[in-house]
Amino acid sequence: MDDLQRMLDEAAIQRVLVRYCRGVDRGDEELIASVYWPDATDDHGVYHGSGPGFAPYVVKALRAHALATTHLIANVSIELSGATAHVESYTLARHKVRRAEGLGLETFAGRYIDRFEKRSGEWRIQHRQVVHDWSKLEPIAAEYPHEAFESGQRSRDDASYRR
Q1: Going from the N-terminus, what domains does the chain have, and what CATH number goes with each?
Q2: 55 C-beta neighbours (distance < 10 Å), count
């Protein structure tokens, strides 16, 4: 594989990873499902099933559980082998939640262990295994004054969908 094709494939895989995070944080089932092949599988710990089926599951779960979420991807390692890529991505997920004692912040640090496949020139996830490395629950004692900012939306009403 030449260097240019390797860079194009790696960039395409990175775009899929970012698209997943955006979909989860915006509550966009269509965007989340688009990162998986129709026959893909996902093991998210609390969810074991089809990749595309994870989309409605996670959107419903986070709408019921979290006031806001942020999912980040870092330290992406990609091993390409023809039309298959083995990808490890560090992830940090932060969920703002309401608890009986007040607002709280859940932090999940882990890794996505993905097998990507390239079909008809497109990379998508064929299997995802989520690995838990550490997590933390903490109260939110105070928040940054955010009244001057437009609030993020967990829907297609979010500013990022306006063109």
Answers
A1: 3-145 (3.10.450.50)
A2: 24
